[in-house]
Amino acid sequence: MRIDIITVLPELLKSPFEASILKRAIEANLVEIHFHNLRDYTSDKYKSVDDYQFGGGAGMVMLIEPIDKCISALKTERSYDDIIYMTPDGERLNQGIANQLSLKKNMIILCGHYKGVDQRVRDHFITREISIGDYVLSGGELGAAVLCDAVIRLIPGVLGNETSALTDSFQDNLLAPPIYTRPRDYNGWQVPEILFSGDFPKIEKWREDQALIRTRERRPDLMDD
Prior knowledge:
By secondary structure, the protein is of the alpha/beta class. It folds into 2 domains: 2-152, Alpha/beta knot, CATH 3.40.1280.10; 169-224, tRNA(m1g37)methyltransferase, domain 2 (Trp Operon Repressor, Chain A), CATH 1.10.1270. Helix content is 33%, strand content 19%. It contains 8 helices and 9 strands. The protein has helices spanning 10-14, 20-27, 64-75, 95-101, 119-124, 141-152, 200-218, 220-224; strands at residues 2-7, 32-37, 50-52, 60-62, 82-92, 106-111, 128-131, 185-186, 189-190. The strands form 3 sheets. A 5-stranded parallel sheet has the order 2-1-6-5-7. A two-stranded antiparallel sheet has the order 3-4. The chain has a two-stranded antiparallel sheet with strand order 8-9. Strand 3 and strand 4 (60-62) form a beta hairpin. The radius of gyration is 22 Å and the shape is elongated.
């Protein structure tokens, strides 16, 4: 998979990809991450990427021209499965979307800033708009990092145990069941005996039941779905 990220603040984005699972995925050539500074595609000496709104109003708007130049340059080199715009009014990121995107080969992620992008960018270049929640950030960079993490960890070979991602919360619309490790007894707090039974079908049934209970208590909306 290759992900091209268009941003006005590439330095803000780089650190998540220089550690842990994302770094290992890049070093193993399972994913390529490329950052593109939108100011490199401007045409004035000030490297302007924003301007005032037509019709008045608070907040600056990202210009269409540098975005067009950047996306067009990338598209001359390869075809893209999706061109994603990170925006608070996009579809809310969930596990199903992450699963879908993990199957893609090439993606562009455009990070919004200021008041947002000229609507014509959304109308003519963007194929999918994604939000990481019902709140507003200073820019789309942190959202892009969240999206990349959610997607990249699903690529075969990224996690040490490939079945791990299949038992995460929100797979099959369920929250993950409780998990335990050593010690068996800590301050009198005991690990459930079933986990030491050696009866793996019963253990799996217990985990399924616990996942259902936890989902019903904490996220009943998932059960409705």
